[in-house]
Amino acid sequence: MSEEERNAIIQSAIDAAQPFSTRDAMVTPATKPEFGDYQCNAAMSLAKSAGLNPRECATKIVDQLRPLIQEYMEEPEIAGPGFINFRFKEEYLSQALGVMVKDSVGRLGVPEASDKKKIVVDFSSPNIAKEMHVGHLRSTIIGDTLSNLLSFSGHDVLRLNHVGDWGTQFGMLVEHLRDEFPQALSKETSKDVELGDLVTLYKAAKKRFDADDDFKVRSREGVVKLQAGDKEALAAWESLCAASRVEYQKIYDVLNIVGLNERGESFYNPYLLNVIEELEEQGLAVESEGATAVFLDGYTNRDGSPLPMLVRKSDGGFNYATTDLAAIRHRVQMEASDGGEKADRVLYVTDAGQSQHFEMVFAAAKKAGFVADSVSLEHVPFGLVQGEDGKKFATRSGDTVKLKDLLDEAVRIAGEDMKSRMENPDEDFTDATADVAKTVGIGAVKYADLSMNRESNYKFSYGRMLSLNGNTAPYMLYAYARICGIVRKATGQPDDQKVEWPEASEIIISHDSEKQLIRNLIKLPDVLSEVESELYPNRLCDYLFETSQKFNQFYENCSVNNAETPELKASRLSLCTVSAATIRLLMGFIGIDVVEKL
What we know:
The chain has helices spanning 3-16, 22-25, 42-50, 54-69, 90-102, 134-152, 169-180, 198-211, 213-227, 231-255, 269-281, 320-333, 355-367, 403-420, 431-450, 462-465, 473-491, 512-521, 524-534, 538-557, 566-590; strands at residues 27-29, 38-40, 77-79, 83-86, 118-122, 156-161, 260-262, 285-288, 291-300, 306-312, 345-351, 376-382, 385-386, 458-459. Strands 7-6-5-11-12 form a 5-stranded parallel beta sheet, with helices on both faces. Strands 1-2-4-3 form a 4-stranded antiparallel beta sheet. Strands 8-9-10 form a 3-stranded antiparallel beta sheet. The radius of gyration is 28 Å and the shape is globular. By secondary structure, it is of the alpha/beta class.
């Protein structure tokens, strides 16, 4: 159902319930198939205010709605004490599915948003000179999926990688490079330096920092030099950043992450002092035990004392909150002509442990007037990845699992599973088969993460995520390949060629399983709109799984190749086409390439 049609129902319910609000209308997708396609529970809450019992109120709402929706809805049903159920007419279902099949290689008839926005999505955010770990996986794939969906909706989306490229640890790293890789301190020779394993380099520097007091002093002095713009320190810092980018990009290539713009903490350095000055001028930033802090109503320590949000340390250094406030100003307040974004909506995809930090930063930004009322700042939190025992996901030695190792292992297991099902398991993989193993392995990791409510912790299990049963990537990839096989067989296409999807045909509903599949397929705009608003990618996965199940029920009951008439066969082929296109579109949002044969 299109956004315009859905809004028409909602507006009609509002008009019938005046002087009540949009929230009072309460038109939502039906919670169960037996309740129809949509339901309206407004009568339950409006009855008392209207001086009616709920069923009388529901009857009045239906009387007003009937002439406005009779073209595509059956007679509304009043159930129980006053619930109103709506069902699409079969003629509308056929028409709506017909629109989708005619656009099966495009948008499936889903219109772009009528109110297009500039949206910044801040995600991934690894730290320079440190390896990406499983926590970065969640931020990266959740942020990428939301960005893909929002772009599809027609919004102007800027994907930002707020890397940790500044801070006190860089004094330590720069001084270590001064001793071990002196050529890294010259801009002319730094590009030729091979820093090797950055994690090993970081650990070596940290070991010296903890054991050598002279090196510790030099490291602290190095921070000052770097922040003051010392040429040697900056050259060494740039070497570290460049080497880190090479490593991150390897991960992004494997995960199929594109269009991610790096804008690290250092980018906002020129704006930090101005943030402090404005906060002080407004009386929001005050001295607190030698530091500068903002105190916000409603935030206290455990002992009940006011909880400070530090924006400047006692030594004059700045905090994460300062950088985030500067970033907000740059993203929503600064004009595009000055290099800003003028965003309408900013999403921060980080772990749930940072929820209070962002609550306070957003509150401070609004209180300081950095954010207009029309602008939305939203934290998109996610939970922890755990081992199968429910504890921290770690290696046997207790170390954090490296993201590269995790992805490599998923591909290896997927490949072994594919080999076990080959006619000759000892036969070497072709390049094409190896690509499929990579698609299945990486897709399984991404899908397993996204299929969970992002706010929940989830237990990482290669066995579950690579299973061909249940709501998994292998299951969805198999479902897509199966539909391709059905279409090939019904249209006489060879197995070794790319599927040619049949021409769109008139949709005929001859069995209830066809009707239920169509009802599910035309929910696509509603599902996308819900995820765009509420930012829970697992609802995409839930819808994918439901679609595949509805298709299976349809195929079990309705022969495609041996349909009773040519017209019915063409109609059922169109159902196959739209089902496959829906899977392909949503798997694309997730960043998983479908395969036509498994």
